[in-house]
């Protein structure tokens, strides 16, 4: 895999939306954030496609240094095309993680489809990999750790990480 596309609600968050008098609040897991930072630092592109937009999401993406994001989209497939052309990659070269049926088009086109443990059953039936962790609870970190571990093993660094 040469890139990662993530949904936000239910993947980077637990899917809950907290409505205050003026703000919409969401909680993001710090360990997912660190996993994304590690991927970006290793030159692995991470992009975001979400059906919702909002200040909370934008603030978190800015916090993580994610520049490739498309928010408030209905057509996730054409949003995927935009990210792929930006990265000069084919659909089969990217992994995608989503939790609901609106992500199925994107997941179906990707080379590796992933769903957090608490995703909608219709999504879990269709993906290549269901993480052990739930959305907003380490699902993204589970993938990033596995990917970086595999890259390290594949690079022949000589270090032995078996346990
Ligand atoms: Mg979602």
Task: Report on this structure.
- It contains six helices and eight strands.
- By secondary structure, it is α/β, with parallel strands linked by helices.
- It has one domain (3-151): Rossmann fold (3-Layer(aba) Sandwich).
- The strands form two sheets. The chain has a six-stranded parallel β-sheet with strand order 5-4-1-6-7-8. It has a two-stranded antiparallel ribbon with strand order 2-3.
- α1 packs parallel to α6.
- The protein is globular, with a radius of gyration of 15 Å.
- The two termini are 25 Å apart.
- Bound molecules: magnesium ion (MG).
- Magnesium ion (MG) is lined by residues 7, 9-11, 99-100.
- The site of magnesium ion (MG) has 6 residues, from loops.
Please describe the biggest sheet, giving its number of strands, its sense, and whether it closes into a barrel.
Answer: 6 strands, parallel
Q: What assembly state would you assign to the polypeptide chains in this entry?
A: single chain
Number of helices: 6
Which blocks of ≥5 consecutive residues have pLDDT under 50?
A: none
Radius of gyration using CA atoms only:
15 Å
Structural class: alpha/beta
């Amino acid at each position: 895999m040469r890139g990662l596309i993530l949904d936000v609600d239910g993947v980077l968050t637990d899917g809950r939306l907290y409505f205050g008098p003026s703000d919409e609040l969401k909680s993001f897991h710090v360990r997912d954030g660190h996993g994304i930072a590690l991927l970006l630092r290793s030159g692995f592109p991470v992009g975001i496609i979400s059906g919702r937009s909002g200040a909370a999401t934008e603030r978190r993406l800015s916090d993580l240094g994610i520049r490739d994001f498309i928010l408030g989209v209905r057509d996730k497939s054409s949003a995927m095309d935009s990210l792929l052309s930006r990265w000069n990659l084919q659909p089969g070269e990217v992994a995608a993680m989503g939790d609901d049926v609106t992500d199925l088009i994107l997941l179906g086109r990707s080379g590796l489809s992933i769903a957090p443990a608490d995703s909608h059953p219709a999504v879990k039936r269709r993906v290549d990999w269901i993480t052990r962790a739930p959305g907003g609870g380490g699902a993204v970190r589970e993938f990033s750790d596995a990917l970086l571990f595999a890259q390290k093993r594949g690079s022949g660094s000589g270090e032995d990480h078996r346990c």
